[in-house]
Specification:
Blueprint lengths: L18 E3 L9 H27 L22 H14 L18 H17 L2 H15 L1 E8 L10 E6 L4 E6 L6 E9 L5 E6 L3 E6 L3 E3 L5 E3 L2 E2 L5 E2 L7 E5 L12 H26 L10
Parallel strand pairs: 1-4
Antiparallel strand pairs: 2-3, 2-12, 4-5, 5-6, 6-7, 7-10, 7-11, 8-9
Helix pairs in contact: 2-4
Length: 300
């Protein structure tokens, strides 16, 4: 998930930052400037997300240097983080999501029979989109990283009798939402992007009104020091958004936007050191007793 992202000394884990903008409306005239400002905050979140994902997978380097008998240096990873995440996925996210109607009346005073039919149809469409599997993927991101994203879009390849929408879980390393800096914190724009091996980035930015397809938002510097603009856009740039809403939803695990094991990382690091040192102690004592390593016989 990115080189060096697991080096905890370089980052402070205090929850993922929320991204705001001061503009009242995002248009084709200011979308680049808003995106340039937001991507810097996202990159800080991205490094922390990469570290947490790697940590849960077991990439937990010991925070100490073994100075005595450095030839015996057993590194043990007692991966408590993975155990906590797996428990949460089974206990809180183990059952498929199903929509129900709490009562026979709502604010619109609609027909309850028609509402029941609509909810049943929505559940069937979710099953057609394999929503349970995608929710499990979303849950893993939420529990580990503190945030997760899902996108609902109009289905382009519609088949009769199937779902009319696409449901996709997005990687939080390549997705974020820009909120308006006011009391309502209204979602202004969702951003998801992909990065090629040559470094080019392709951004898909969607507001409630428009859809922007943008390539590279920063200039590149050549070997001779010249600055070259690599900005571009696709044919779908500045299209109308037929949904009339930002199609990406951001889910947060807690208000501080922290992962489930994030606060206990120092404790887990200390446990890894303790178990590793115990294993080193056993290995050293075994060599001393049975192989007479580091032991001298008395001489006359």
């Amino acid at each position: 998930y990115g080189g060096g992202a697991y080096e905890k000394e370089k980052i402070e884990l205090l929850g993922r930052r929320r991204i705001y903008t001061d503009v009242s409306e995002i248009t084709s005239d200011n979308v680049i400037s808003v995106l340039q400002e937001a991507i810097g905050i996202h990159e800080m979140n991205r490094g922390e997300i990469a570290y947490l994902l790697n940590y849960e997978k077991g990439l937990q380097p010991l925070k100490r240097e073994k100075k005595i008998r450095p030839d015996i240096d057993i590194n043990v990873c007692d991966n408590i983080a993975n155990q906590v995440v797996e428990f949460k996925l089974g206990y809180h996210w183990g059952n498929p999501k199903s929509f129900v109607q709490r009562g026979d009346r709502d604010l619109s005073s609609g027909n309850p029979d028609e509402d029941d039919d609509a909810i049943t149809l929505l559940n069937q469409m979710n099953e057609d989109e394999h929503a349970f599997a995608k929710d499990q993927e979303l849950a893993r991101y939420i529990e580990i990283c503190g945030i997760g994203f899902q996108m609902v879009d109009i289905k382009r390849d519609y088949e009769e009798g199937g779902s009319v929408f696409d449901l996709n879980t997005l990687n939080p390393m390549y997705t974020f939402i820009v909120y308006r800096n006011d009391i309502r914190e209204t979602p202004m724009m969702s951003v998801t992007y992909r990065q090629l091996k040559n470094g080019d980035r392709y951004f898909t930015c969607i507001t409630k009104d428009r859809r922007f397809e943008i390539k590279n938002i920063f200039e590149k510097v050549n070997d001779n020091g010249e600055r070259k603009s690599t900005w571009g856009s696709s044919q779908r740039n500045d299209e109308k958004n037929p949904l009339g809403e930002v199609p990406v939803v951001e889910y947060v695990r807690s208000y501080d936007r922290m992962g489930v094991f994030e606060r206990q990382i120092p404790d887990m690091d200390a446990l890894n050191i303790e178990v590793s040192d115990f294993a080193n102690c056993v290995a050293q004592n075994t060599q001393e007793i049975w192989w007479m390593n580091d032991a001298d016989f008395p001489t006359d």
